[in-house]
Specification:
The complex is a heterodimer of chains A (115) and B (113). Chain A is built from no helices and eleven strands. By secondary structure, chain A is an all-beta fold. In chain A, the strands form two sheets. In chain A, strands 2, 4, 5, 6, 9, 10 and 11 form a seven-stranded mixed beta sheet that branches. Chain A has a four-stranded antiparallel beta sheet with strand order 1-3-8-7, with no helix packed on it. Chain A is globular and about 45 Å long. By secondary structure, chain B is mainly beta. The chains are: A mainly beta (115), B mainly beta (113). The interface between A and B is medium-sized, with 34 and 27 residues.
């Protein structure tokens, strides 16, 4: 059973299109996240979300929006795709807790290619 | 979060111990040291974390100096499958939406036959 699953694994699309990436976690975690890993392999946080708050990294364009239908899902919608959006996108989740919290669980990634 | 400094890359012979250092001289008293790794084409994987005591689990050991300004991740018997980028992250050990995990450049460990 996959703890954090993302679909699709690969996505090729044209500039200007709107696309979505889905993420589901079956761990019962409270908070979910989206990360972007660009061609230089740097992992950057984009969003964190639980039922109380949405935190958006200030560098993320407003063409990107997270949608959470329920606690187990956090989908990523991208409007008007640009060439620079090409990257691997990772979903992650964590259990909210106090000091000494354990780590995040990551999905296997979605490789987005914009042509 | 306190910043960390790691070597860009390291090599290790298969079967030997891999010792990955991390400097975090500005760590605060309530910040933990976390280690993750990312194997090629996979999502990051949590390895271990600690505050001030040494920690060990089925994957690795974490040695934190007494002054907490540096730490070492030890893979006791490295295998080819341990080839990955290893990230040392210092952060307050509370999980919530406002305390997001941020990654630096990490150390690329190459385990060689």
């Amino acid at each position: 059973d996959t703890a954090v699953s993302q679909t699709p694994k690969y996505l090729v699309t044209q500039m200007g299109n709107d696309k979505s990436i889905k993420c589901e976690q079956n761990l019962g975690h409270d908070t979910m996240y989206w990360y972007k890993q660009d061609s230089k392999k740097f992992l950057k946080i984009m969003f964190s979300y639980n039922n109380k708050e949405l935190i958006i990294n200030e560098t993320v364009p407003n063409r990107f929006s997270p949608k959470s239908p329920d606690k187990a899902h956090l989908n990523l919608h991208i409007n008007s795709l640009e060439l620079g959006d090409s990257a691997v996108y990772f979903c992650a989740s964590s259990q909210d807790s106090g000091q000494g919290s354990y780590g995040y669980t990551f999905g296997s990634g979605t490789r987005l290619t914009v042509v | 979060d306190a910043k960390t400094t790691q070597p860009t890359s390291m090599d290790c012979a298969e079967g030997r111990a891999a010792n990955l250092p991390c400097n975090h001289s500005t760590i605060s008293g309530n910040e933990y040291v976390y280690w993750y790794r990312q194997i090629h084409s996979q999502g990051p994987q949590y390895i271990i974390h600690g505050l001030k005591n040494n920690e060990t689990n089925e994957m690795a050991s974490l040695i934190i100096t007494e002054d907490r300004k540096s730490s070492t991740l030890i893979l006791p018997h490295a295998t080819l499958r341990d080839t990955a980028v290893y990230y040392c992250i210092v952060r307050v050990g509370v999980n919530n939406a406002g305390n997001m995990l941020t990654f630096g450049g990490g150390t690329r460990l190459m385990v060689k036959p």
